[in-house]
Amino acid sequence: MNTSDLLSSHFRILPVQAAALKRVGISTIEDLLYYFPVRYGDTADVKSIESLNKGETAVVFGHISGLKTGKGFRSKIPMSEAWISDGTGKAKIVWFHQAYLAKMLSENMPVRVEGKVSQKKSGELYFSNPKVENVGKVPIDAGNSLFGNNGEAHALYPVYPETRGLTSNWLYHKLQAVFTSGILETLEDPLPAEMLKKYSLPSLRTALVWIHTPQNIDDAEKARKRFAFEEIFFIQLEKQKSRREFKEQNAFVIEKKIEDIETFIERFPFEATHAQRQSIEEALADLRKGSPMSRLLEGDVGSGKTAVAASIAYAITTSRPKGQDFGTLQTAYMAPTEILAQQHFESFIKYFRHLPINIGLITGSGCRKFPSKVNPEGWTDISRAQLLKWVSAGEISILIGTHALIQKSVKFKHLALAIIDEQHRFGTAQRQKLASKEKITPHLLSMTATPIPRTLALTLYGDLDLSLLDEMPAGRKQIITEIILPSARSQMYAKVREQLAEGRQVYIICPRISEPDPDKETAILAKSVKEEAKRLKKDIFPEYNIDILHSKMTPDAKEKVMLDFKAKKIDILVATSVVEVGVNVENASVIIIEGAERFGLAQLHQLRGRVLRGTHQPYCFVFAETSSDKTVERLKALKTAKNGFELAEFDLKQRGAGELYGRKQWGLSDLAMEAIKNLKMVSAAREEAAKIIDADPTLSTLPLLKQHLEKTENKIHFE
Question: What is the pTM of this model?
């Protein structure tokens, strides 16, 4: 048996189980070994059969008898039956869809049974799909002494994540079969022995035993620590390797300091903050090195990221290709949606209209160029072929667009800078395509308004240098945030009506698209976009135009709604959290967030940033479906935290990393997401990975590390 062998080649797997295994990503024995328990049950409180009660989860010891397999009388479901006796009585055991289990047991075998106690109409109690373990012998006093297969005391059992067709019990038995096969003895640990010793981590074999069959909770925690470190370490190793490879490429040397672009910075519509100036200086220092910049600019909504990006683009635009006193270096700016690309096109026109340069826009809908020959103050639509011709000739200094930028037909003459907005919205491959379009690698500036904890940033963006915009430009109005009790809803609507009467617009965010439960009480508790829009139009704001926006709409439909909202054709937009990050609707001054406890604090903060775009006083009204002390404490942080980074750190401590945005977005396991709380672990993994890559960039002297990295590189996704 080999860990890379397919599970199905060693175990009989039913179609329903095969589908379930595929859903959770298990296809090989190695996948199964790395499918860890979510928690451990404590079996210390053993019950006698005579004391069992309906509905409880119980553990009993006894001898098994009456084993038989068959199918349900009416349902025809494959099932097994048996009886367990302990001297005080006997109880039936029934397994549905797991007829094979009866064949794994034998008459009079001493067993431990753990599971839910159900009751037939006749009153007879029985165990439904319990976990059954051969214990060697039944303890005399089961309540005081528990024995495992080897006769040693133990009180923990693993509980695995379940899905339809896949039970924790089934997984437990398959893992026990893998353990008894001797496969653990053949495993080689990918982590170097000196690293394990340095951080007091168990070996791979020990950790696998401890995480799946721990003798005590301390062993289980040590195993979880080891696997969390392993996952973060290999992510860091991949990132440090990518970083090294990227930095070894050639890039344009841009000999500019902040003094050289001071006149441009003075044109900002506000005085540049210290954080902006520091970020600009950090980026300019990168540009002078000759190796490509690889920097992430992270900042709250309204902190001035676009102004920083424009300043770096200005440094590029006013520089010449090496050895030439003519021509210009080029900048490509990629945005995740057409509406954002158009918005950045308009912003850059404002920043650069005083210069004799051309700015282009390329999206799936068409192309534009500024300035227009007919109207030097405005832009004009042009053909795609004409725009591409000018780009390849170097006549377009700044090209802004969507993923259309990375198509093969788009060729630059001197691409020196690639800017990627909301960079987590693009796949790694898409970012790489833009950054490697030319023989000379362009500098890379990524930007995001998604505030995440420092430990998560260090893990996910290990190949990028970080610049933080953690302060707001002077003059920005502070958003007034209120946590609204259900009894104050009508007063809140009165405030909203005042804003609408003044010509302002309103966002209303709901956690669901539609309401699955027709029960009226539930519908009130769990707001949905479709039902809430109907209710508001009928009962609250009948005289105003109301529309909806959610993730199941087509991209074109979503864009039309956002453009209509921006054009003031819609007064109230009821939406899910899909509301575009970064879209400027300066006239929107109010946002209402329903079911706020369903969102992470950083996400709530980002949502309320939708109304920070204009000069009007912004308001955020927050509703929660529950009023527990913990929920209220979390939401109060919205009023007291200075910025999104502070909120992200607070959320990390309160709810755990897995709740920040959902682990699927980042591609980390629950184990690694929980470990993100540990700055020492993340820093240690990063330090070890950097040290190894610096000493041996190709890992030629560490074949096990190299092999494991190659195997896991394809699994590392952060989108």
Answer: 0.75
